[in-house]
Amino acid sequence: MTSASIRAVCAVLTVVGVIILFWYAASVPMNIKGVLNEFERAGEQVDPPKAVDRRDMSEFELVIDNPYAIDETWEQERPRLPAPHQVAEELWDTTVEKKITSKRSLIYHSWVTLSATMLGFAIGTGLGILLAVGIVHSRVMDLSVMPWAIVSQTIPIIALAPMIIVVLYSVGIQGIIPKAIISAYLSFFPVVVGMVKGLRSPDAMQLDLLRTYNASRSQGFWKLRLPASMPYLFTSLKIGIAASLVGAIVGELPTGAVAGLGARLLAGSYYGQTVQIWSALFAAAILAACLVGLLGLVERTVLKRMGMAQ
């Protein structure tokens, strides 16, 4: 590894370490009241006792009065804010310790969400590229479609998702398709914006040179505009695939799904399993990071073959 790479890794590890320390510190005041209540039910003495109203006391005052309870705030079964090691243990238990086909396996639930994500991402990417090409080559589409594409993103997805699901359910469309449509809705806009910017990136001198060679519009598209748009496209794809994953998870919430990361979030919310909720959130973040990293690898390969230095 080069010195620059080592410095970058050290910087990342430092930030992660600070976040973990802050997380542990925040868990103490967040969970202290629950720990004190458990002590009282077990017959142990706490300060102040139950007869005294604690509602006027802050969590930090309770921590100061009961420093011996700090360790227990990181070991609660249902904490308000789980400690990092609790989330890590839950991730290990639901990935390594469980069979992939188990309904308690996060790998199984991640695959359910990933399938809807990829289908929606493919639909959104295809639609976004087609709209971008039309917008760049047609003044009418630029003036009519682009404003509507922008307005469509002002509608909160949490409000739109139930409407889409109900409408599709009424016509007999269920399963992965509604979630994929919601994913496509979130992912197509970044692709449209990035692709339009990329297709318009060639300067006037390059376009004039093509006209000098009497190149047709299709030749100009394939030989100049499309290659020039690749860096912009891959940047927008990274944003789009992360948004597509969010759309798939949101699409699982209104349906009361029994599988998928959204279903894990719902189940954890219903039964007060905060550790399960956080582990599902981390699983979604890890999945998104892997997808973005895979796109980055494809980007480097494609641009290198096209002779574009990275």
Protein traits:
single chain, 310 residues, elongated, mainly alpha
**What's the story with the biggest beta sheet?**
none
Mean pLDDT: 82
Helix content: over 70%
- Please state the CA-atom Rg, rounded to the nearest Å: 26 Å
Low-confidence stretches: none
Helix count from the secondary structure assignment: 12
Order of helices and strands: HHHHHHHHHHHH
Strand residues, percent: under 5%
Structural class: mainly alpha
Approximate shape: elongated
Q: What is the terminal separation in angstroms?
A: 18 Å
Query: Total number of β-strand segments?
Result: 0
Quick summary:
With 310 residues, the chain is mainly alpha-helical. It has 12 helices and no strands.
Outline the structure in words.
The protein is mainly alpha-helical and 310 residues long. Helix content is 75%, strand content 0%. The protein is built from twelve helices and no strands. The chain is elongated and about 90 Å long.
